[in-house]
Specification:
69 residues, 0% helix, four-stranded antiparallel sheet, Nuclear Transport Factor 2, Chain: A, mainly beta, 58% strand
Amino acid sequence: MLRDYLKIYESDRLVEQSLLRLHNRGQEDVTEWHIVGANGEHKGSVVLFDKLSNRRSYRVSYRITQTDL
């Protein structure tokens, strides 16, 4: 599903680098992936900011940032 919103080739892979859980009012998760090409070169990164609702147990907002090298 995440790949639908990114400008990457089908042969590119997403390799998870880090997951940060912020226990603030919004219960936000920040996940970072590196974009790796078919021949192993680092092509960029993707960061997903995922905020959880305080009153309900579902996600209320997403923000995806793609950075190319």
